[in-house]
Sequence to fold (114 residues):
Amino acid sequence: MDCIFCKIVEGTIPSKKLFENEHVIAFHDIQPAAPVHALVIPKKHIASINDVGPEDWGLMGEVLRAAQQVAAETGIAETGYRLVNNCGSDGGQVVFHLHVHVLGGEKLGPLNGK
Fold:
C-alpha cells in the first residue's frame, strides 16, 4: 500500500507527533492552514468516513478523544477550534486515509463552501 499516513504510522516517514496511543496518532500538518493545525488519524487504514463500519465506531471515538486532547495540549481548547473531515475528491480529500484536521490558534472565519 502506498499510503503516506500508513507510512507515518509505521514510522518510515517522520512526523512531529503530538499524541499517540494504541489506536490513533496525531501530528502537525506540514502545510498548516492555521497557527495550530494537527491531523488525527486512526492507525488502521480506513480510506474515508464512508468506509467506517460498525466495527470502527469505537475507533472513531478514539479519534475524537485524541482531537480533544490535542486541542487541550496545544492551548486552543479554551478559546475554540474546528474539526474538519474531508470526504472524497469533491469534499476536498487529498490523502485517502481517514483523518481529522484540528485547526485553531486564531479566530476562524465562517465556512462558506469555497
Observations:
- The mean pLDDT is 96.
- The first strand starts at residue 17 and ends at 20.
